[in-house]
Model the fold of this input.
Amino acid sequence: GGKGGGKGGGKGGRDKGPSDCFKLVRTVVSMGMEPLIVFAFGKRKVEKLAEEMGTLELTVHTERESITQIYENAIQTLSDDDQVLPQVEKMLPLLQRGIAVHHSGLLPLLKELVEILFQEGLVRFLFATETFSLGLNMPARTVVFTSMRKWDGEVFRPPSAAEYIQMSGRAGRRGLDAQGMVVLLLNEEIEAEALQAMMSASPLPLESAFRLRYNTLLKLYALESYDVELLVRRSFYTYQRVGALPEIARRRAALEAEAAALTQPDEPRLRELLAARSERAGCEVAMEAFVRAPKHVLRFLQPGRLCLLEDASRGVSLGWGVLLGWRGTATSAYVGGASVPPERMRASELVLDVLLPCAAGAQALALAGDAPQPAPLHDPSAEAWVLPVRLSCLQQLSSVRLWLPDEVSSPESRRGVLHALRQVFAERRLA
Done:
């Protein structure tokens, strides 16, 4: 391979001169702009670029001794089989020259070793994939992009603005460098619009993921000296919410001003319509209460009549069933020792016995003291059970009445009634 300046030459391939990356590295060294991070999109590309550095040496004798000692102490924790892995054996010669690679294919121990040596300044050139820029606070003076195309699993595309900011943000060490340097190796054409969008777009907003859950509270209260309220006040979540208050107040004032400026030519007419709609809703509620009053509805509660039921308190539709009878609750049967006529009872004090289709396993629930769950009428696995339902759950009464057997306590008789109910729906005789 061709030879570069300094102490080494880059391998640019058979009968080729130094690679572009090696020439750039040599320039960075001559300008004193190391430490350097070279980002490449791919593990193989990372390792290939490190090999192209030839015999380039960036460390002195004492530094090589320190690197060797740290390396040997670290690999002693590996098993004998892991110590002879190719990636383990190839790492030391690179490290001794102040060069390292970092990607997801390395053993965790090797990645940690590279990170430690980079932080200590013993690694001058680091060839890494973009994962090195995520979550690790390891800045350099110079950052190099070897390509402006990455494979995202579907297509090759330029890095997004967030990805570019994350990687290029490693250039410049706080308190050490007045400014960092970012170099793009454009080895292929890229659209100007795509490059501008990548470099000028705004970063993704940073939102706090802090959530105060029961487990967190229990752990905090286990620490008797810890102030939970102080933790919340000092959290980034609270900082963001407090900081957003002026903007929220401004938006609220703008919306209120916009609402006050709205004009409606037919506003009086609309107010009348709104009042009429409210009055209609009130009349419907009053009419339903009137119709369901025991003194009006009891005459229609004959055994065999079909009824539609809904438990409004739970928001559950019980569907169509067959009324078997009705009765008063134990607390409403007598008032002051005297019997109360049914027509004087409230709707909530009357209970209807209704045969309903229930989900399979209803018998087990009934034996355990739980109410069986309703099932669709067309469900072939539905079981017929008699459930007590308050009169207030009654939504509709049908003019259709079924003939009932003398008793419906046996499963066979209940199945017969359920079959008749299904036939009514099949023949569309429901009204």
In short: The CA atoms of residues 233 and 239 lie 8 Å apart. The longest helix spans residues 236-261.
